[in-house]
Design goal:
Elements: H1 18-24, H2 34-44, H3 56-61, H4 67-81, H5 85-114, E1 125-130, E2 133-138
Antiparallel strand pairs: 1-2
Helix pairs in contact: 4-5
Protein name: Calcium-transporting ATPase
Region (Disordered): 1-33
InterPro entries: ATPase_P-typ_cation-transptr_N (IPR004014), ATPase_P-typ_TM_dom_sf (IPR023298)
Length: 145
């Protein structure tokens, strides 16, 4: 792998022998040295996932997007065109209720995750194997890289 090149998921590493995988990843059974870990940290950045914030309005509107909501929306429009107002309002209320309930459940689930009741706040610890020794650290703890 050339310097600065990101490893690709389709490299086929699963089918290679361990010695070739270590060679491709420029690693060894002893793990990375401190110098190599710092070099990779500078080259690739920290090992973390950056969470994207989504607008609550866009989250709510997403419940009106997709094949099933489109069919229901078409039924609402056809009911209005045919002037079947009872059907129109029943279908419209069902569509809105589905969106509100789905949005509320997703909002509650997000709150449970981010409040720490499901996933603890802060960083998750990890066993780090480097320079031939096991150490406990976190994904952004550069002392052990």
């Amino acid at each position: 792998m050339k310097t600065g090149q990101q490893p690709q998921a389709n490299d086929g590493l699963k089918s290679l022998p361990l010695s070739e995988v270590e060679q491709k990843l420029e690693s060894s059974p002893e793990g990375l040295t401190q110098a190599e870990a710092e070099k990779r940290l500078a080259q690739y950045g920290p090992n973390e996932i950056i969470e994207k914030e989504t607008s609550p309005l866009l989250q709510f509107l997403s419940y009106f997007w997709g094949p099933i909501p489109w069919m229901i929306e078409a039924a609402v429009v056809l009911s209005a065109v045919a002037q079947h107002w009872v059907d129109f309002f029943i279908i419209l209320i069902l569509l809105l209720t589905k969106a509100v309930v789905g949005f509320w459940e997703e909002h509650q689930a997000d709150n449970a995750i981010y409040s720490g009741s499901i996933v603890p706040q802060g960083e998750i610890g990890a066993m780090i194997y480097a320079t031939g020794a096991n150490t406990i650290g976190t994904s952004s703890d550069t002392r052990f890289l």
